[in-house]
Amino acid sequence: MPELPEVQCVVDSLKRISGKKIVSVKILNDRLREPVQLNLNDLLKDKIILEIERRGKFIIFKLNSGDIVSHLGMTGKFLIQESLIENKFNRIVLELDDGSFLIYNDIRKFGFITYEENYTSNKYIKKLGVEPLSENFTADLLYELTRNKKTNIKQFLLDQSFIVGLGNIYVIEVLYLCKISPKRMAKDVNKDNCIELVEEIKRILKNAISNGGSSISDYRDADDKEGSFQDSHKIYNKKIDPLGHDVLKIKQGGRGTNYCPICQFY
DNA sequence: TTAATTACCTGAGAGC
DNA sequence: TGCTCTCAGGTAATTA
User: Fold this and answer.
1) Phi-psi bin for A165: left (phi > 0), alpha (psi -120 to 50), beta?
2) Is A2 one of the catalytic residues?
3) Cα–Cα distance measured from residue A31 to residue A90, given in angstroms and rounded to the nearest whole number
4) Less Cβ crowding at N or C end of chain A, within 10 Å?
5) Where is average pLDDT lowest: A114-118, A126-130, A165-169, A218-222?
6) Closest-approach nucleotide to residue A33, Cα vs C1'
């Protein structure tokens, strides 16, 4: 389940293909979240990959003309292979000018890959909120954003139009570390909570990136390597928290939420 | 206008 | 063994 740290690690592992030219594009399955442009080969052929960047959970391949915008959804992966290894979940294969392959593999097809003349005009990119690792993400901003919000803090933090990059796992972990109940309304977090949330969000994301992300089910980087940050999780997918308290599991907005009713205050 | 629910998707695991 | 059911969750569309 790629969230900001996992996407960042994928981007870092993809950087070594920058400078390479796309020779051809083969579409093996066009029914992704966004239907694959059927003329993708014409759009990408002979384009050079200049840079690879992350915006929220999106991956941007900047080309010498135009950009590729991609989202990994739940099970998407980019793989770099020297020779193509057949896999039934390979959806799109880009052949590069050094003979290697960049493969978009996605079991559940919640992700997509699309060509844009400029990634900033992408309909999803346009709606994104603040980058949590940027200096723009401050306690003051978080306090301001949460005013009058009647949704719970868990779902607020997941909303990519406010803060980008956080997914279910990291939100669950952050709320536990900040001792805030996921059921508390967003408008009821105070200034001190916001200071702590901002610090903890930045800290956990940086830690996760330096540990290669969290590999829960399908996540791998472009070299098919797993991360190890799942070993540092305190409460996600746990029955007992580090203090020995029973962890409760509830549903919020159709998503599972783990929390400790003793440590986390409503 | 805002908040909550549902659809999309498929493998894994549980239960019978 | 094999079938059915439930669960996992990122995002947008739909509904309230």
Assistant:
1) left
2) yes
3) 12
4) C
5) A218-222
6) B8
